[in-house]
């Protein structure tokens, strides 16, 4: 007998161990079944499960379990990413607690320590994925630093270099001064900072007393200025174009150039150009062939090597000794010193408060420094062309399609991809330098030495490039490196290209695009046919989750509290393609009630002697009730299948909820009670047969999203003979004789009782009160149906009888329309309808006023343009809710109109 209380903790670990141990998750390359492949976005080995992962995993696992039940040979490829900077930071922090610096250890000893940490602590997130029920093929688990994947990385690097698509260049990068490495745009977050806009006077050469005023938020970089730019259309400065100004502090002459980058409406209309320390300035510098001296080193300290010696004691300029005093000074201390000196020289025109976005390292938390350095780059523009074409021609389709525009916008304006990082943990770049700086790019050191012998004619000392590769480079190979490439394995032939990639919109460019470019280039085909983009998980108010807001939700804590099935179903129920998910604890709790409802329905069946009956043939059903629920099951199969094939998990979850809670529990089991408690016979047997058939159908339909409770019930009931539900076939519809007539009959009954219940609830009729129901304008068929179903109508609609009524409606009735008839509830002396009408009118007016107020707010451009996106979305949601409530109240009023 099933336990009275659902306790997921009592069966979830046991079931998962059983699935994994039995090989239920394992793909079979020798199978004749059609393959279905999903590559997991490899989580960082340092990571732990957050709500974004939980959504991602729920979507993927639901799709994989669905396709597996359809008979596909499903490979859900697991693995983790070595996460260069994140992992190095974790281990450095551990060493710091021991009083050890990695530079003292040396590279080799440090890497040994990282591998040790990975072996001891790097499996946290994979254990947490198991906790969520993820049916990954763990026998094929990969790590981006595995030797097989490292071989793929070396092969791709060397091949791209030989094809001229990998090269070394000196360009600006995002530089993290704390970790002293280049970082990707994804590792940069903008923070609003309250600062100042300093208007500085640059003396115009040859025009004593005239100054060109530039506005800047970064006076510390002025040492590296090589020009001042003005807009060519700006009349104020037209006579200065082509002339020079004197750079304060340094005393160097720098030109005034005309460039559209300068916005006449911003600041002073003139901008200082520092090509080595600003991305926009770098482009201006290229357009005007300006020098690019670096004035900050890798630690963000003043570097004078490229500007020292240029200082001249111009009248009104700082003494060269002051410039020398800045050497080695931290950038923000240098800012204070420079501003003090400019103040002394009376070269500050004015200072304005200024709030602006400042890029910070997402892990270091310090402001990022644009820095001009030598790095390795991939010619992304060349690789992007086939990837763009693949999406344009539909070889890869984005769901929803609108994200293709984001993909195109990035890819059509793609810049060279910086792939080198100044770290120790990662794939070390396979490049060696000769004593004269000549570069040898080879797969191994032995091959590099052989190439050097050919080049020099004798043995030479080679030095390996100390940098490692960006983690996006190795994860960009994930769809084929995990399958054995560059070796031609059976898995590579069978499971590439994949079917679906499930990921968030935030890494379309950083990961999806990389996989597209590298997959097409090295495999000759796209890595996946569909990219299913999901939204962010936000809190109930639509706000992004953050520790500072205190609204972060731990999915593991929710799974422990309510069961993994309840959490998964909640995430799925809001997971429309591309739509953000609003997650709240109350929603998970509410969906635990749904899981419990299924459990209790199964327990009710068990208590009433309903058990798997392989002899029952649903196509032979004769009673309208059995035919109706079997036919409704067919519709549920069609809805669920269509929704999953279209990646509409919200529609899939909604169809499950409607059919399970509504059709099966609330209606079929309630309507079946008289037969179940009545004498044995054909009707009772058929009701029991239909019940076990539909319960088994529900368990199969719900299994992809609620694997634990469905597997437990399947096993406890003894469904089979296949055994485990995870191996059971996806349900197929069955032919139902007389389905149309049964549907018409039962749909009328359900609609009739539902309308009566709605009216009673709206006018507050006490549950203990029973009243007759009057049918006005009812056909003979409707009256006959009412007579046939009088017992459930009395029991479920709290009615004494159903009577035909001719003529006008009597006084004191509430009413509703069902089909061609009007059903009336005589309530005079039972309910004060005038008071109810007044109450509903007051509520309706209040809700309508609130809806108008919200609509006016949304119509105000000041609000929609200035408010945060999540605030606007929350407001739209409030409007939709108010409008729906107003419509409900209006309908209620119409039922008791005077």
Automatic annotation (TrEMBL):
<dbReference type="InterPro" id="IPR009008">
    <property type="entry name" value="Val/Leu/Ile-tRNA-synth_edit"/>
</dbReference>
<comment type="similarity">
    <text>Belongs to the class-I aminoacyl-tRNA synthetase family. ValS type 1 subfamily.</text>
</comment>
<keyword id="KW-0030">Aminoacyl-tRNA synthetase</keyword>
<dbReference type="InterPro" id="IPR037118">
    <property type="entry name" value="Val-tRNA_synth_C_sf"/>
</dbReference>
<feature type="short sequence motif" description="'KMSKS' region">
    <location>
        <begin position="544"/>
        <end position="548"/>
    </location>
</feature>
<keyword id="KW-0963">Cytoplasm</keyword>
<comment type="function">
    <text>Catalyzes the attachment of valine to tRNA(Val). As ValRS can inadvertently accommodate and process structurally similar amino acids such as threonine, to avoid such errors, it has a 'posttransfer' editing activity that hydrolyzes mischarged Thr-tRNA(Val) in a tRNA-dependent manner.</text>
</comment>
<keyword id="KW-0648">Protein biosynthesis</keyword>
<feature type="short sequence motif" description="'HIGH' region">
    <location>
        <begin position="43"/>
        <end position="53"/>
    </location>
</feature>
<dbReference type="InterPro" id="IPR002300">
    <property type="entry name" value="aa-tRNA-synth_Ia"/>
</dbReference>
<dbReference type="GO" id="GO:0006438">
    <property type="term" value="P:valyl-tRNA aminoacylation"/>
</dbReference>
<feature type="domain" description="Aminoacyl-tRNA synthetase class Ia">
    <location>
        <begin position="15"/>
        <end position="583"/>
    </location>
</feature>
<dbReference type="InterPro" id="IPR001412">
    <property type="entry name" value="aa-tRNA-synth_I_CS"/>
</dbReference>
<keyword id="KW-0547">Nucleotide-binding</keyword>
<dbReference type="InterPro" id="IPR013155">
    <property type="entry name" value="M/V/L/I-tRNA-synth_anticd-bd"/>
</dbReference>
<dbReference type="GO" id="GO:0004832">
    <property type="term" value="F:valine-tRNA ligase activity"/>
</dbReference>
<feature type="domain" description="Methionyl/Valyl/Leucyl/Isoleucyl-tRNA synthetase anticodon-binding">
    <location>
        <begin position="627"/>
        <end position="770"/>
    </location>
</feature>
<dbReference type="GO" id="GO:0005524">
    <property type="term" value="F:ATP binding"/>
</dbReference>
<dbReference type="InterPro" id="IPR014729">
    <property type="entry name" value="Rossmann-like_a/b/a_fold"/>
</dbReference>
<comment type="subunit">
    <text>Monomer.</text>
</comment>
<dbReference type="InterPro" id="IPR033705">
    <property type="entry name" value="Anticodon_Ia_Val"/>
</dbReference>
<keyword id="KW-0175">Coiled coil</keyword>
<dbReference type="Pfam" id="PF00133">
    <property type="entry name" value="tRNA-synt_1"/>
</dbReference>
<dbReference type="InterPro" id="IPR010978">
    <property type="entry name" value="tRNA-bd_arm"/>
</dbReference>
<keyword id="KW-0436">Ligase</keyword>
<keyword id="KW-0067">ATP-binding</keyword>
<feature type="domain" description="Valyl-tRNA synthetase tRNA-binding arm">
    <location>
        <begin position="832"/>
        <end position="896"/>
    </location>
</feature>
<protein>
    <recommendedName>
        <fullName>Valine--tRNA ligase</fullName>
        <ecNumber>6.1.1.9</ecNumber>
    </recommendedName>
</protein>
<dbReference type="InterPro" id="IPR009080">
    <property type="entry name" value="tRNAsynth_Ia_anticodon-bd"/>
</dbReference>
<dbReference type="GO" id="GO:0005829">
    <property type="term" value="C:cytosol"/>
</dbReference>
<feature type="binding site">
    <location>
        <position position="547"/>
    </location>
    <ligand>
        <name>ATP</name>
    </ligand>
</feature>
<dbReference type="InterPro" id="IPR019499">
    <property type="entry name" value="Val-tRNA_synth_tRNA-bd"/>
</dbReference>
<dbReference type="GO" id="GO:0002161">
    <property type="term" value="F:aminoacyl-tRNA deacylase activity"/>
</dbReference>
<dbReference type="Pfam" id="PF08264">
    <property type="entry name" value="Anticodon_1"/>
</dbReference>
<dbReference type="Pfam" id="PF10458">
    <property type="entry name" value="Val_tRNA-synt_C"/>
</dbReference>
<dbReference type="InterPro" id="IPR002303">
    <property type="entry name" value="Valyl-tRNA_ligase"/>
</dbReference>
<feature type="coiled-coil region">
    <location>
        <begin position="830"/>
        <end position="892"/>
    </location>
</feature>
């Amino acid at each position: 007998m099933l336990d009275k209380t659902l306790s997921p903790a009592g069966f979830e670990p046991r079931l998962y161990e059983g699935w994994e141990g039995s090989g239920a998750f394992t793909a079979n390359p020798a199978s004749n079944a059609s393959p279905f492949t999903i590559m997991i976005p490899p989580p960082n080995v340092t990571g732990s499960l957050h709500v974004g992962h939980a959504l991602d995993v729920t979507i993927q696992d639901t799709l994989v379990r669905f396709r597996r039940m359809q008979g596909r040979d499903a490979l859900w490829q697991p693995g983790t990413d070595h996460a260069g900077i994140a992992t190095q930071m974790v281990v450095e922090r551990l060493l710091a607690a021991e009083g050890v610096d990695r530079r003292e250890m040396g590279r080799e000893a440090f890497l040994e320590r990282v591998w040790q940490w990975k072996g001891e602590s790097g499996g946290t997130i994979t254990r947490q994925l198991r906790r969520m029920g993820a049916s990954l093929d763990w026998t094929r688990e990969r790590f981006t630093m595995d030797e097989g994947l490292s071989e793929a990385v070396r092969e791709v690097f060397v091949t791209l270099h030989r094809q001229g698509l990998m090269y070394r260049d000196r360009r600006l990068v995002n530089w993290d001064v704390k970790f002293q490495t280049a970082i990707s745009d994804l590792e940069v977050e903008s923070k609003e900072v309250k600062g100042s806009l300093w208007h500085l006077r640059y003396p115009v050469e040859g025009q004593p007393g005239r100054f060109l005023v530039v506005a800047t938020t970064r006076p510390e970089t002025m040492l590296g200025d090589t020009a001042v730019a003005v807009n060519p259309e700006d009349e104020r400065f037209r006579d200065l174009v082509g002339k020079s100004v004197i750079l304060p502090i340094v005393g160097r002459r720098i030109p005034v150039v005309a460039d559209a980058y300068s916005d006449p409406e911003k600041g002073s209309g003139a901008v200082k150009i520092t090509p080595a320390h600003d991305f926009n300035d770098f482009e201006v510098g290229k357009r005007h062939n300006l020098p690019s001296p670096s004035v900050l080193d890798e630690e963000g300290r003043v570097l004078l090597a490229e500007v020292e010696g240029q200082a001249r004691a111009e009248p009104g300029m700082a003494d060269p000794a002051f410039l020398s005093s800045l050497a080695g000074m931290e950038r923000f201390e240098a800012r204070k010193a420079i501003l003090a000196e400019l103040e002394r020289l009376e070269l500050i025109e004015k200072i304005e408060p200024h709030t602006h976005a400042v890029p910070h390292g997402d892990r270091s938390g310090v402001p990022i420094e644009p820095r001009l350095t030598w790095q390795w780059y991939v010619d992304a523009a060349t690789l992007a062309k086939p990837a763009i074409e693949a999406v344009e021609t539909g070889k890869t389709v984005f769901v929803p399609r609108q994200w293709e525009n984001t993909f195109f916008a990035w890819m059509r304006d793609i810049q060279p991809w910086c792939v080198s990082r100044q770290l120790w943990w990662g794939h070390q770049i396979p490049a060696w330098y000769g004593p004269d700086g000549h570069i040898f790019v080879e797969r191994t050191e032995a091959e590099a030495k052989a190439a050097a012998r050919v080049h020099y004619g004798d043995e030479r000392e080679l030095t390996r490039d100390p940098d490692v590769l960006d983690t996006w480079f190795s994860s960009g190979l994930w769809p084929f490196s995990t399958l054995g490439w560059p070796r031609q394995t059976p898995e590579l032939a069978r499971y590439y290209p994949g079917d679906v990639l499930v990921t968030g919109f935030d890494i379309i460019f950083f990961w999806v695009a990389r996989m597209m470019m590298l997959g097409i280039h090295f495999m000759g085909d796209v890595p996946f046919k569909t990219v299913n983009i999901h939204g962010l998980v936000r809190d109930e108010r639509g706000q992004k989750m953050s520790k500072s807001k205190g609204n972060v939700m731990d999915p593991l804590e929710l799974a422990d509290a309510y069961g993994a099935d309840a959490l998964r179903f909640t995430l799925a129920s809001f997971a429309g393609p591309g739509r953000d998910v609003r997650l709240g604890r109350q929603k998970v709790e509410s969906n635990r009630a749904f899981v419990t409802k299924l459990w209790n329905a199964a327990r009710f069946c068990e208590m009433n002697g309903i058990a798997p009956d392989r002899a029952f043939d649903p196509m032979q059903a004769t009673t309208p009730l059995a035919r109706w629920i079997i036919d409704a099951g067919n519709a549920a199969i069609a809805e669920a299948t269509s929704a999953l094939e279209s990646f509409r998990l919200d529609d899939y979850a909604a169809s499950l909820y409607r059919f399970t809670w509504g059709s099966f529990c609330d209606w079929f089991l309630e309507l079946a009670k008289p037969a179940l408690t009545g004498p044995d016979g054909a009707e009772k047997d058929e009701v029991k047969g239909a019940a076990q058939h539909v319960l088994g159908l529900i368990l199969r339909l719900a299994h992809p999203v609620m694997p634990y409770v469905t597997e437990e019930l399947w096993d406890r009931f003894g469904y089979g003979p296949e055994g485990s539900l995870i191996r059971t076939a996806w349900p197929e519809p069955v032919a139902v004789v007389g389905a149309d007539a049964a549907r018409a009959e039962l749909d009328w009954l359900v609609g009739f009782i539902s309308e009566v219940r709605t009216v009673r609830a709206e006018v507050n009729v006490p549950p203990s009160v029973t009243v007759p129901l009057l049918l006005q304008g009812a056909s003979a068929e409707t009256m006959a149906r009412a007579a046939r179903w009088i017992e459930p109508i009395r029991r479920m609609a709290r009615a004494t009888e159903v009577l035909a009524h001719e003529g006008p409606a009597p006084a004191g009735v509430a009413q509703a329309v069902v089909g061609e008839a009007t059903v009336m509830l005589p309530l005079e002396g039972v309910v004060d309808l005038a008071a109810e009408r007044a109450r509903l009118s007051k509520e309706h007016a209040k809700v309508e006023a609130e809806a108008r107020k919200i609509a006016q707010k949304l119509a105000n451009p000041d609000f929609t343009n200035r408010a945060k996106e999540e605030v606007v979305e929350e407001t739209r949601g409030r409007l939709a809710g108010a409008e729906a409530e107003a419509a409900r109240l209006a309908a209620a009023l119409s039922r008791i109109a005077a």
